[in-house]
Model the fold of this input.
Amino acid sequence: MSINATLIGQMITFALLVWFTMKYVWPPIMQALEERKKKISEGLAAAEKGQHAMDLAEKRATGLLREAKDQAADIVSLAQKRAGELVEDSKQSARVEGERIVTAAKSEIDREIQKAKEGLRQQVATLAVSAAEQILRQEVDRSKHKEIIDNLDKALGEK
Amino acid sequence: MASEAHGGGATGYIVHHLTPLSVGEGFWTLHLDTLFISAVLGGIFLLVFKRVADNATAGVPGGMQNFAEMLVEFVDTQVKDAFHGKSALIAPLSLSIFVWIWLMNFMDLIPVDLLPMVGAVLGLEYLRVVPSTDLNATFGMSISVFLLIIFYSIKIKGGIGFAKEMLLNPFGKWMIPFNLLLKVVEEVARPVSLALRLFGNMYAGELIFILIALLPWFIQPILGFPWAVFHILIITLQAFIFMVLTIVYLSLAHEDH
Done:
């Protein structure tokens, strides 16, 4: 093996190589790496923040949901109470109305009965008067007497 | 070496594979294959990474960008682990070293005869395809690193500080010549060990591939495949060691004692 001028050539090549790498290769790559590192760390931070926000929102949503459920339950029970009241009320008023109607009908009936009795009494009176008149006109004839009475009976029976 | 005579047979085959394509005489010999292949590999590295750098976005990375970023982050982690100062140079330097050495080592995994045969068709007498089996390539890098170490030592500690460190450690002012000798050996040992470690590993690996290629064809896969798989580890490990030691040496140069 011999050391010769090739050494100088190799040194020059090496120097150029190092110079070029230092000037044009290393800095852009390192910069890109740094930028990526920054971007990744930013992304991770953002993701964490997002996660946190989501947790918060979820918690709030759960709270709201529970509140809404409570409210709904309240409303339902209120409505049931109201409905019960209404049913009770209408039952009450229906009963009252029914009683009123029944009373009215009864009094009507009473009045009719009264009226009919009145009419009958008058007719009976009239018939009795006319029968008495006929009996007085034909006293002598027994059979005729009997016939008049029969007629009276018949008239009474018709009423 | 280019002028060495070698006959046929196994020795000739091996020597042929390990002889670089060279021009010139004496010190001014140039190993064209080393220069050309390492430059092409460096060009590929720069092209790929430049493209990635131009298209680099902070968004979702594509395949190539992902791969390049993986390498960049890997190197960056190594640098940050060992080096605590601030320097715009060390990390890109380490990346260049790692990828370039890896690519040069990777040439080892291309079948030993393929590229020399292509070279022969093109009229090249010799072609040694693995640049890191050339001492000039490994020393080219390690000496550059060594110069950077000296430069940063002086820059950070100042001329006087550096001189003090060289002269007064580890035995105080009465042993200055001995201290200097120790320190020089210590400093020089670094680039030498860097270069020789890489060179030795790659040279030995290539040699074994060549030896395997000399065996009968039905034995070649049995030995060649495990060795190639093992070599994938070696080439990466050697590139990694070179890079990490460079980082360590430079961070030592940045530290005040």
Notes: The mean pLDDT of chain A is 89. Residues 82 and 148 of chain A are 75 Å apart (CA to CA).
